[in-house]
Amino acid sequence: MNYPAPENRGTLHPGSIVECRGYKDALGNVHGAMMCNAGVMVRNGDDRRFTTARHCWDAVEDQVVYHADRAIGRIIETLGDDLGLVDCAFDFSNELLDIDVTAQVLKKAEEFSAEIFFLWIQHPWGNSDSKC
User: Fold this and answer.
1) Helical H runs in 54-95?
2) CB atoms inside a 10 Å sphere around CB 52
3) Strands 83-88, 70-79: parallel, antiparallel or unpaired by DSSP?
């Protein structure tokens, strides 16, 4: 779904599919093309970025992030080992798509106790649930 399109809320959300298009070699074969999800929008002063898995763009130098066949931004910074920050040209809401919840704070995993922290994820490609 093209979330930035006006008929689809006009806004990207956590869980929206983002992609790296990879690159073509001399024979025309594509390498490094990957899809992953947008994370959450974070702010630092007036700077707004959304998070994504940085490793999905390891194969390319331009770091351009695509959604629904259009360039929506570029990874401009990496936090830690794999948290890419995307400078996005479109509106982004931290409202989750499937449940009435809005992400408000980004916390490190070490701040959570394994005994109390469970996140249920419904895979978009199947009906099974996983807990992480």
Assistant:
1) none
2) 25
3) antiparallel
- Could you give the count of Cα atoms lying within 13 Å of 131 in the half-sphere of its Cβ? 5
CB atoms within 10 A of CB 122: 12
Measured CA angle at 111 (ends 65, 43), to 5 deg:
40
pLDDT per residue rounded down to tens, the chain (132 residues): 666 666 666 788 898 999 999 999 999 999 999 999 999 999 889 999 999 999 999 999 999 999 988 899 999 999 888 999 999 888 898 988 777 888 877 777 677 665 554 544 444 444 444 443
pTM, to two decimals: 0.76
Q: What's the CATH number for 6-103?
A: 2.40.10.10
